[in-house]
Amino acid sequence: MRRLVGMLLGVAVLMHVGATKAAGLEGEGAPYPEVHPGRSFSFPADLGAHPAFRTEWWYATGWLEDESGQTRGFQVTFFRVRSRIGEGSASRFAPSQLIIAHAALADAGLGRLLHAERSARAQPPLAGAEEGRTHAWIGDWRFSFEDGRYRATAHDPAFSLDLELHPEGPPLLNGEAGYSRKAPAPQHASYYYSRPQLEVAGELTLAGKRRAVKGHAWLDHEWSSEVMPADAAGWDWVGLNLLDGGAVMAFQMRDHAGRPLWTAATVREAGGETHRLPPQAVSFLPGRRWLSPRTGAEYPVEWSISLQLPGGHRTLDLRPLMDDQELDGRRSTGAVYWEGAVAVTRQDGTTLGQGYLEMTGYANRPRL
User: Fold this and answer.
1) Is the peptide bond before 184 cis (omega within 30 degrees of 0)?
2) How far is CA 170 from the centre of its chain?
3) Tens of pLDDT along 138-195?
4) Are 74 and 61 in contact (CB under 8 A)?
């Protein structure tokens, strides 16, 4: 669900507006296509970019363990944004497609989130997102799929990630066969699939020291043209890998009073049976809150998620790896939000799995 980032459009275009005016490329291209139910997904073609749509993202999150047994959370995300500016121009500098990348590391030993980001016009070979296969890049930052596995690389002076992510099965379609509603009005929707239970191996560089790491991850690939309704303030999303092999994606869109506008979930059982739950079968109950010393935003860092499954009721409790996992993306996406590693437990404290939680709209409203 992250990745309801139609907010990227306005902010990213502002980054290039000066160059656009100087080149005489102002104007709009063709309208964005709408998202409709009944679309047939085709793989591997749908692993790649869909440049006609407004926004798109490849979003990988997970937990890593190094040789010493220390665990950390990680996130690598590539966004593609169609600005509709300069689409009729032959200029290589027209910002008609923009690429933005985020990487983050959650290290409880540091007590805070390490975050890096890049942005650029789509201008091969410098930056772009290919159709027909997963390959998004900005310079030496890359996210790709080859030989049956994903590869994520991000390099920053504070930390670097070089990871391989191996899927265990086919993509998991969310919503109605990949058509994922975000609000009561049907136009607020995306095409959306996940790849849970990715096996991860690779290398983390932190404070100049290289560490071999392994773990598990979650990948979301989502594209849309209009997602967030005007009466929404933000959303809460989770992607959870369970120890028994199961997986849970759940989200709620909140109004300005904090009430749920829309909720949904996809639950894959350990045996492979999949349940796609409607709003009335999913609820988010916030627990303990954390106050950011930087922004003054207050985030519910502990949650109980209630799922009404065909076989009965299930409650999953979420506990953060650390409280301070606030990410300040105002330089690129314009949003400040909480995004971090969480443990999944039963109410008696028994560990059930690990995953990632994203919360937006607590510090500022994501901009469309």
Assistant:
1) no
2) 19
3) 999 999 999 999 999 999 999 999 999 999 889 999 999 999 999 988 889 999 999 9
4) yes
Q: How far is 212 from 65, CA to CA, in rounded Å?
A: 8
Using the structure block, give the residue that is written with the tokens 């937990």. Answer: 63
Could you give the residue ranges of the DSSP H alpha helices within the chain?
Answer: 8-23
| Residue 119 tokens, joined | 């942005």
The answer to whether the CB of 161 falls within 8 A of the CB of 167 is no
Total domain count, the chain: 1
What is the reported pTM? 0.90
Q: Model confidence over 5-54: pLDDT tens digits?
A: 433 433 344 344 344 444 444 446 789 999 999 999 999 999 999 999 99
pLDDT band (50, 70, 90) for residue 4? very low
The domain of 332 spans: 5-23+48-359
Q: How far is CA 305 from CA 206, 238, 246, 317, in A?
A: 34, 10, 16, 6
Report the CATH number at residue 81: 2.40.370.10
The helix (run of H) or strand (run of E) holding residue 198 is: strand 189-206
Alpha-carbon span 338 to 328, nearest angstrom: 9
Are the beta carbons of 366 and 182 closer than 8 angstroms? Answer: no
Is residue 364, in this structure, part of any structural domain at all?
no
Q: Which helix (H) or strand (E) holds 227?
A: none
